[in-house]
Specification:
The protein is an alpha+beta fold. 30% of the residues lie in helices and 32% in strands. The strands form 2 sheets. The protein has a 4-stranded antiparallel beta sheet with strand order 3-4-5-6. Strands 1-2 form a two-stranded parallel ribbon.
Length: 167
Amino acid sequence: MKVACKILILLVLVAVARGQQTSKGTFSGTDKTAIIESVLDLELRNQNSVPDFANIRDVSSENIEFVEPSQLSKRGFTLVAAADLHQSKKDRVVTYLLFRNISLREGVAVVKLSRVTEGRPSFGAPLSIERTYTYEARQSSGVWVAHLTTRPVPSVPFVVKRSAVTR
C-alpha cells in the first residue's frame, strides 16, 4: 500500500512538473502576447513605408482571443471581435489585420499576418482581398524582436486585349 502511494505521488509530481514546462513547439500566453506586440510594432513601421503604405488599425480577435485589448490600444491598434467584423462586412467594406498562425520552430516564432479587405461596397460585387506577410520573432535579451521575412508578390494589373481575327 505504501509503495502504491509513493508511486502515485511520484506520477502526480512528474505530471505537474511537465505541465509547468513550456514544450518545444509551444510557448506561454505571455510570450505569445509579446510576439504579437513585436509584430504589430514592426507592422506599424511597414505600413508607413513607401511600398506598403496603409493605415490598418483594426485587428481581428480571431486566433488571438487571449490578448487584452489594452495591449493593442497602447500601440494604436483596436482589437475587434471576429463576429463584429463578420457582421460589418455584410453592409460595408472593412479592412483589418488577421493573425493567421503563430508557430514555434527551433526557438523562432513564425507569424503569418494577413491584411484583409472584404465586404460589400455600396455599388458592385462583394470584395475580398488578402495579402499575407510572414514575420519571424526571436527572443533577444528577454525581449521578442520581429522582422519581416516574406511579403506577398505585388499584384500587377494587366489588360487583356482582344486581337482582331482576320480571315
